[in-house]
Fold this protein.
Amino acid sequence: MPVDQSPGETGKNVVIDRGEGKISDLWKKEDYWAVWLGFAILIVGALIYFPMGSSYDFKDKKTKEIKTAHPGTGIEEQNRIIAAEKKNPFPTVAFYTAKDKKKKFQAKSSTIGSTIKKWTSKPGTWTSNPLNAFFMSKDQASAVKKESGLINKYNDAKEAEKSAHKNAKVADATAKAAGYQDSGLNNAAITTIKDWRDKKQVAGGLKKKGLPASKAHNKIFQLIMLMIGMAVFFGIGVAAMGQSFSKFFIGFLFVFAIACLAFTMANQTTIKGLGIGYAAWAIIIGMLISNTVGTPNWVKPAVLTEYFIKTGLVLLGAKILFGKLVAIGQPGIFVAWVVTPTVWLTTFWFGQKILKIASKELNATICSDMSVCGVSAAIATAAACRAKKEELTLAVGLSLVFTSIMMIFMPVVIKGFFPPHMVQVLGGAWMGGTIDATGAVAAAGAFLGDTALYVAATIKMIQNILIGVIAFLVAIYWCAKVECKPDQKVSSIEIWYRFPKFVIGFIAASIIFSLADASFGGDISNTVIKQGVIKGMSDIFRGWFFCLAFVSIGLATNFRELKEHMHGGKPFILYVCGQSLNLVLTLVMAYIMFYKVFPEILPKIDPALQMLVK
Amino acid sequence: MTDLNCKVSTRKNATLTSPAPVRDGGRGGLHRWASLLFGILLIFVFVSVIAPWILELPYMKSVNHVIQERGIEANLYDYTEVELFADAEFYMRHAMEDSPKDTSYMISIIAGVLLFSLAVWIGYKYVLPDRKE
């Protein structure tokens, strides 16, 4: 796009663009390459996983045999049981068993899915020896198991689950024998079933968390192959855009190695407990290098923050499914969709008018990361309004710090000050609407209880749908208002020229996958889209791409420039004020919606209230 | 690499793709490597001393216990990566299945979307400052 200097503005360093689009932009511009690369991954994912709705092969973990799963008929069978059991006054053992069986139909568990997972896996969990993230021999694995007592803990939890299951079945059968007419027997059954589900969660958690950390593995070869594969993948676009493929390739090896280091740090067990993720480590390690020994010149051709971010964002679009809004939206849409723009706009206005923050881009990035959902929203907004890398670093840093604080203190406040019958639903909604990072929402919710976790997670999911909408609106606002001369009217075609095209890819991915989600229908869609293309393909690569982007940000960030943005602590004040407003509005809105407008929802989502009603 | 610098701006270093910082020419090589080693030492102290100490604090211990026990990936950023979010969706879908997706249900969803649009329109028209301001 050619750039002119306005004669009247000469000397003021003001540049005005003259929009122009060429066919060659399609293969010469980074935004388009992000779309092509992102869609290439999604299309491959769709070709692999979409046909698995009828059947897929998987390896049985116990017998090690290859078996065939039939999601279509299997899910139908479980749905019949669920429909029959739903006639009973409370969720029975058979109901939950059928639900558990349904959940096992996941296309990513297929033999192809497992192979993709194996060849794209990140460095693993470790406790005291970081090399264990990459390599662990059988002897080391058994030593870790012995030392940590993981196997014993898991076996104990499994035994407790079995025993609770037995009790639940007995209590359920007794209540059933009385025709579910005896409220005493019903309540006893509800309590024992809940106990079984709790113990099952604990055993499942230990299995997921503990056992993989103590399994023999060697990821070194896979990581090297993945590094080469990704270098070629991004290198094709780099070469098409006129840069040197070989220089990019060599530099990429370093960026990828730092990304591995960032994942390794994030996967240390203690660090996981504190909620410090890979983004923080990628920025810290990158900045440590760039501000001490300096980013080597041969690495710089691969420090392509926007290229990695935009490709990752196109992949992110695929998981923004609008059908979710209709399926689970009613309890949370007002909390998530009315409060969020209100907080965003008020905070942005406050930042511009009261705090007089010099950079609108920094202001917008902080507003999104604070009011929508932390890191993902910050990345999308920063890319949409073309924020500086230091501004994104600052916004993400603020979000990470406050997320950790809120994850710890919000459950305390809720437990201490909320009436007991409001702890689960109101507390969950409050946390889901205000805590930025989803992992932290899950942790804080689980600390209060299952219902709080589910409500918090639901609100967060509904809020997540806004990432694309907010990025789109920010891009429009920037093109139409911010990036123009005073009193200049910007035509639609000018807006199109200036519009960041990757946002179109992001929205298109969201719409296409939402339509696919609707056409497959709830359960099959869950098997092939959510537990297939998204979790078995796009999520894996998106994680890597964002990590590469954050490493690039770190490698290109200067402490001094970062300090300039912190001038007067304005970003901090903006975040604190905005988050305070968010806390108040979310609480008020959640109370009004759950307890005044839609009170009939409460017994459906809170079993304790269900028991009281029954 | 990017063509996105075409804006009315006095920002010298616009966009996420600006070049990596230039090393401070006034500092010697030894000083730079010493700074790097000091940074690594700080990270080591944080991971091996400070972080475990924080998790041993009375309240933090119970939070960490829940995180460990439930296998929660507390440091992940996307809900599709967190297993418990799938459970939550599953639970909520079933809880909401009893609510018929009738007119009143859809009206409430549409009302939410309309309120969102109204907030955005008011914001765009009256709250968001123009460049000239």
